[in-house]
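Propose amino acids for all 466 sites.
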């Protein structure tokens, strides 16, 4: 065989796994169908969305809170073209960094669509139509996901768009209708609401980010409402139509009435689907499940033992850091190590402002599992640091086992929650009790004190500053 490992796909799962394979002495090739490495996350996902979230938040603060800080601005304007250009520069610099890492680790980078010829052979069809065939002892499927859409809401990429187009609009929508108030809806809806668009969320479930702890959805709704957004919860979209200059969205209300919403753009953010198009999995005999996900066992092996899969194309959360863990896991498994991933402790973050972050069981899950539990929560408005920076929205909620005090879940919405959740992950990885966290010194004044205070609240209601 020419290669010990062939990685198909260069997203965070693919490139991280390829690097770990190379570090472990495996001769590795990585195949990517697009000219740029980095997959969804670096090109049209995590990185560009965070660049626009940061830029739009700067604008929003300049327009709405600088005056209170004692900073006067005149003639403030949004330069959307520059905002999108900067976003692209961040993306380009980041993806070039991956090219550098491939070279540094002596990983062969091949661009083109990879497809199975047989269980050990991959054909790569390049942009110019030429073909190359390579053989590998082990093959890793890391082909990620694509936006989901339904026949009732056909994506035309002009007015009815996915996150990919929403990251490169040439004008600020007047009225953006967002179908699905999940993670993408919340993040990209916030971007355009901050820049002045009217944003309406139409959501099947009864809250924003409905899969997270219910408290977070309620709190997030309050802050997004301040941006002027409207919410249509428990509403069902029946039709989306681009009429030229407008998009008309037909919706069934919970009472069974029919209403229409008219906007200039409609963002369809109803989830993502695993992507295996063109892989020719049949030639290798690799099975997919009834949702199109490549089936894997606990070692991330498919039904063909030397073929593995990871990230968005398999079961579990569609998150970059989950895919990265799995890339490392497979590399270490191939060389005979015994790696471990604690799936319950993979944090989830929504990069609105304030940020939303969560790890472990939600209160709804704790109840479902019938665990005896107690809750401690602490509001950001009681924190000195939050008052100093004017970031008083949000709270930290800690769920701990009623008898053992072990932390079962931590759910936060507040300034820098995305970074703060790492402390909760560490604590839970070491099976800390809420009491353990209260015994650790937290620098003052910091946002992290909210976590300590919530842990104090969870242990005999001992929060100090509330
Ligand atoms: P991907 O990143 O999807 O990469 C798969 C790669 O495989 C692609 O480059 C694709 O071109 C390539 N490929 C597919 N088929 C073939 C083939 N046959 N031959 C060759 N190459 C092929 N997650 C977070 O954790 N944090 C965030 O902040 C975050 N923000 C996001 C924002 C948006 C707008 C979106 C859409 C997603 C976001 N995500 C975020 C999710 C994150 O992007 C994904 O979970 C992550 O990219 C999955 O990584 P992956 O390696 O499984 O696949
Ligand atoms: P999502 O699963 O987060 O949200 C989709 C929402 O659409 C859900 O609330 C669902 O109830 C709703 N929905 C589904 N069908 C609907 C319909 N017909 N009408 C109205 N509402 C409907 O999916 P989203 O936001 O598209 O994101 C896809 C994936 O990308 C997520 O799994 C997420 O993990 C990942 N992602 C992660 C980010 C992060 O980590 N910060 C940022 C963006 C995306």
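Proposal:
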């Amino acid at each position: 065989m020419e290669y010990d490992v062939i990685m198909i796909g260069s997203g965070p799962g693919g490139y991280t796994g390829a690097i770990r394979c190379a570090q472990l002495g495996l001769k590795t090739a990585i195949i990517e169908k697009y000219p740029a490495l980095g997959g969804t996350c670096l090109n049209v996902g995590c990185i560009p969305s965070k660049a626009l979230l940061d830029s739009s938040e700067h604008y929003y603060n300049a327009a709405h809170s600088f005056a209170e800080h004692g900073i006067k601005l005149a003639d403030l304007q949004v330069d959307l073209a520059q905002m999108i250009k900067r976003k692209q520069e961040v993306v380009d610099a980041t993806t070039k960094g991956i090219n550098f890492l491939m070279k540094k680790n002596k990983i062969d980078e091949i661009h083109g669509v990879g497809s199975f010829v047989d269980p050990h052979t991959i054909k790569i069809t390049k942009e110019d139509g030429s073909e190359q065939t390579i053989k590998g002892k082990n093959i890793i499927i890391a082909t990620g996901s694509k936006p989901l859409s339904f026949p009732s809401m056909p994506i035309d990429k002009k007015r009815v768009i996915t996150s990919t187009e929403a990251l490169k609009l040439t004008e600020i929508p007047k009225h953006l209708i967002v179908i699905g108030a999940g993670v993408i809806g919340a993040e990209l809806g916030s971007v355009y609401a901050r820049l002045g668009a009217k944003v309406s969320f139409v959501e099947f479930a009864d809250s924003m980010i409905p899969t997270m702890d219910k408290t977070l959805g309620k709190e997030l709704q309050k802050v997004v409402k301040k941006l002027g957004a409207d919410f249509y919860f428990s509403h069902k979209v029946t039709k989306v139509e681009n009429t030229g200059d407008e998009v008309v969205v037909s919706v069934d209300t919970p009472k069974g009435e029919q209403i229409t919403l008219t906007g200039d753009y409609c963002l369809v953010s109803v989830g993502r689907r695993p992507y295996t198009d063109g892989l020719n999995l049949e030639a290798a005999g690799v099975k997919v499940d009834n949702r199109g996900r490549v089936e894997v066992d606990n070692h991330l092996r498919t039904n063909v033992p030397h073929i593995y899969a990871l990230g968005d194309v398999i079961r579990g959360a569609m998150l970059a850091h989950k895919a990265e863990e799995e890339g490392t896991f497979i590399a270490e498994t191939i060389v005979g190590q015994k790696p471990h991933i604690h799936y319950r402790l993979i944090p989830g973050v929504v990069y609105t402002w304030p940020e939303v972050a969560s790890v472990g069981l939600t209160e709804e899950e704790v109840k479902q599992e019938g665990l005896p539990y107690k809750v401690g929560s602490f509001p950001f408005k009681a924190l000195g640091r939050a008052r100093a920076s004017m970031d008083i929205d949000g709270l930290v909620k800690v769920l701990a086992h009623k008898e053992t005090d072990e932390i079962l879940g931590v759910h936060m919405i507040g300034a820098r929650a995305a970074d703060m959740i790492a402390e909760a992950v560490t604590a839970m990885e070491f099976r800390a009790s809420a009491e353990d966290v209260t015994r650790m010194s937290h620098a003052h004044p910091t946002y992290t004190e909210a976590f300590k205070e919530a842990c104090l609240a969870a242990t005999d209601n001992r929060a100090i500053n509330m």
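The chain is about 30% helix and 25% strand. The pocket of NAI (ligand 2) is lined by residues 179-185, 187, 202-205, 210, 237, 269-272, 317-319, 349-351 (CB under 6 Å).
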